[in-house]
Amino acid sequence: MAHAEGQQHPIGIYLKIWGLLFILSTASYLVDYFHFQGYLRWTLIIVFMLLKAGLIVSVFMHMLWERLALMYAILVPPLLLLVLLGIGSLEADYTFFTRGVFFFKH
Amino acid sequence: MPTSAVEPLPLPEGLQGIVADWSSDQRAFKKVPWGKAMMWIFLVSDTFIFSAFLISYMNVRMSTTDPWPNPGEVFALTLWGNRIPLILIAIMTFILISSSGTMAMAVNFGYRKNRAKTFVLLLITAALGASFVGMQAFEWTKLIVEEGVRPWGNPMGAAQFGSTFFMITGFHGTHVSIGVIFLIIVAIKVLRGDLDRQKPGFLTGRKGNYEIVEIMGLYWHFVDLVWVFIFALFYLW
Fold first, then answer.
1. Which of A45, A101, A104, B30 has its CA 20 to 30 A from that of A73?
2. What are phi and psi for residue A43, nearest 5 degrees?
3. CA distances (Å), B188 to each of B119, B215, B220, in order?
4. SS (H, E, C) B86-149
5. pLDDT given for residue B200 in this prediction
6. Tens of pLDDT along B124-177?
């Protein structure tokens, strides 16, 4: 029974994803190399990061072919981290503000 | 009448499938060996650990009033007379991605019972992982000895740079090192044919099976995944 449960896919798909990951990594390195700044920089970095993460999880880690029960059990809980992200940035803004008021060296 | 002639009902798909799987009064994760489900659950917990590190890094970076050192400058290397920003980190990124590629192929050849190719690919993965750790050791040495970066301060700006850098990359490097050891163990098992003969494992006593190569692969791809986030958020930001 257990043997029938393995994930079997053609080698070609791994090679294609490998190539895509190389291209995306080069692209994100070039963002730094060409000194893109501001919103363009952050947008490109985040987009390339999420694309790479998506390719690794869905193809290399075979999430694409798993049943939805496993997919949701693994991918939904990390969304909670967005709350922590929000709280963290709110708190950081406040800390920065109070440091500016009380400790800023001129 | 032999029971083997009775075909099991196909599993429902979609949202109905989720409800059916979870309410089946059996194992919830169908068509997945339990070791793999457990590895996934471990990886979720590890995701929370690394996210906690990265979010606290965001917090201290946003709240410091000192300028943050420019990672492009700090991690630049002079090669053949040219100062290239972040070059070592870029090489490390490509090495880790390549190791993920060889790992994925090792899993594939494992399920095809191709022992020789699986063994070689696992060994290449381990070698790439070890070279990644070696480059990280070089990077840390350069940062500590030449740049004077300490967890409590550095000459270039915000003191939090050192503490978050050593914490995050150190934890990731530990994961890579453990992965390399884990890879070598699995590679030896493949080479000896333990997985074909279903030899019970030394620690767990579970029957050998090529699933362990895929489970090992999940861990290794996760290490690569974490590096994707560290590379974007720490080095490029």
1. A45
2. -60, -50
3. 8, 16, 17
4. CHHHHHHHHHHHHHHHHHHHHHHHHHCCCHHHHHHHHHHHHHHHHHHHHHHHHHHHHHHHHCCC
5. 87
6. 999 999 999 999 999 999 999 998 999 998 999 899 999 999 999 999 999 999
What single-letter DSSP state applies at residue A80?
G
Instruction: For A3-54, write each residue's pLDDT tens digit.
Output: 445 788 899 999 999 999 999 999 999 998 898 888 999 999 999 999 999 9
Q: Is residue B99 a contact partner of residue B132, using CB atoms and an 8 Å limit?
A: yes
Distance CA A74, CA A45 (A): 25
CA B218, B202, B219: angle at the middle one, nearest 5?
10
CA distance B183 to B212: 10
Backbone angles phi and psi of B52, in degrees to 5: -60, -40
In A, residues 14-73, which contact B (CB 8 Å cutoff)? Answer: 14-15, 17-18, 21-22, 25, 28-29, 31-33, 42, 45-46, 48-49, 52-53, 56-57, 59-62, 66-70, 72-73
Mutate to test the interface with B, among A56, A93, A95, A104 (most CBs of B within 10 A): A56
Domain boundaries, chain B: 26-236
Spell out a b/e string for A38-50, using b for 16 or more CB atoms within 10 Å of the CB, else e.
eeebeebbeebbe
Residue A71 vs residues A6, B105, B135: alpha-carbon distances, Å: 16, 22, 35
The kind and range of the H/E element at B183 are: helix B160-192
Indicate whether A103 pLDDT > 50.
yes
Q: Which of A21, A22, A37 is the best substitution to test chain B (most B C-beta atoms within 10 A)?
A: A21
Fold of B26-236: Four Helix Bundle (Hemerythrin (Met), subunit A) (1.20.120)
Query: ipTM of this predicted complex?
Result: 0.91
